[in-house]
């Protein structure tokens, strides 16, 4: 008999679906919540069934009225001249033209996420999962509010007022950091759009036009910068607004999205 996979980890005995669900409830996650999850499965330690078990446990806690959301970015869909920033490696300039001609168009139903770990892909490939249509900064969602969260994501707005983040804010969503730090807390990017004078950047990616033909899409948007988020998160946590606990072997945090964004606007604005 083939054994189910076990997510990697160095400490503790393997958790199962029920154990993880109990620990998530103890942390404060509730039935009916809409929650954006950022996770390191390695930090959770060994989990029987791997990422699928983690998603199952989250959905068990959230119940039929809840919604599980993950960030499924595709920054690798970008001009080869910027791959040293978006993919983590550079390519010689003489190859740029050929790469531009061959880079596939973003397809919400098929394009895998990039650089955000296993959990978003596990959510994305679940039956019934929906994904927002931004070609570089999409979100995936499962649950009762999945369509409302993911619809009408403007193609020229990564993470601002016309993105799922603003909709999640209005829904009273929460953020769950499973074994990861504030440096990956996507919600803080919404605050960047609300600080006057933030720098802007020109972006480019490949999309399919209305006739299904491959085309490059160019747009200007806020220049996103997560470099201060670790310090910002520590400052917000010092206010007492964050719940901390352990799930598996991981140090985890649970916070409400809207007040965290409001704090981030003030904090970033004071340093502008």
Concise synopsis of the structure shown:
By secondary structure, this protein is of the alpha+beta class.
Q: How helix-rich are the residues, as a percent range?
A: 25-40%
Quick one: overall form? globular
Structural class label: alpha+beta
**Can you count the helices?**
11
Percent in strands: 15-25%
- The SSE string, one letter per element, is HEHHEHHHEEHHEHEEHEEH
Distance between the termini: 59 Å
What low-confidence regions span 5 or more consecutive residues with pLDDT below 50?
1-10
If you compute it from the alpha carbons, what radius of gyration comes out, rounded to the nearest whole angstrom? 19 Å
Strand order of the largest sheet: 3-4-2-1-5-9-8
Report the mean per-residue pLDDT as an integer. Answer: 94
Please count the beta strands (DSSP E, at least 2 residues each): 9
What does this structure look like?
The protein is of the alpha+beta class and 272 residues long. It contains eleven helices and nine strands. It has helices at residues 17-27, 41-44, 50-62, 83-86, 96-102, 118-124, 146-150, 164-170, 188-192, 229-237, 257-270, and strands spanning 34-39, 67-71, 130-131, 139-143, 174-178, 200-208, 214-222, 243-247, 250-256. The strands form two sheets. A seven-stranded mixed β-sheet has the order 3-4-2-1-5-9-8. It has a two-stranded antiparallel sheet with strand order 6-7. α1 (17-27) crosses α3 and α3 packs across α6 (118-124). Mean pLDDT is 94; it is low at 1-10.
Structure characteristics:
272 residues, alpha+beta, seven-stranded mixed sheet, two-stranded antiparallel sheet
């Amino acid at each position: 008999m083939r054994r189910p996979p076990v997510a990697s980890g160095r400490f503790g005995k393997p958790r199962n679906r029920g154990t993880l669900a109990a620990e998530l409830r103890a942390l404060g996650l509730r039935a009916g919540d809409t929650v954006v999850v950022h996770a390191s499965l390695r930090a959770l330690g060994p989990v029987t069934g791997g990422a699928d078990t983690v998603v199952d446990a989250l959905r068990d806690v959230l119940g039929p009225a809840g919604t599980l959301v993950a960030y499924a970015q595709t920054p690798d869909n970008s001009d080869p001249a910027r791959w040293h920033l978006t993919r983590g490696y550079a390519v010689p300039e003489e190859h740029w033209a050929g790469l531009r001609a061959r880079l596939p168009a973003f397809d919400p139903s098929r394009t895998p996420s990039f650089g955000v770990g296993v959990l978003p892909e596990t959510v994305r490939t679940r039956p019934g999962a929906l994904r927002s249509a931004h070609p570089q900064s999409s979100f995936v969602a499962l649950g009762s509010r999945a369509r409302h969260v993911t619809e009408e994501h403007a193609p020229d707005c990564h993470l601002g007022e016309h993105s799922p983040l603003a909709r999640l804010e209005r829904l009273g969503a929460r953020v769950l950091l499973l074994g990861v730090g504030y440096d990956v807390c996507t919600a803080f990017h919404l605050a960047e759009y609300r600080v006057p004078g933030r720098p802007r950047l020109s972006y480019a990616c490949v999309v399919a036009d209305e006739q299904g033909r491959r085309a490059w899409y160019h747009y200007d948007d806020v220049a996103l910068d997560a470099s201060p988020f670790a310090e910002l998160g520590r400052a917000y946590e010092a206010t007492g607004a964050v719940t901390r606990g352990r799930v598996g072997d991981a140090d985890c945090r649970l916070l409400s999205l809207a007040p965290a964004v409001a704090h981030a606007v003030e904090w970033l604005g004071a340093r502008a």
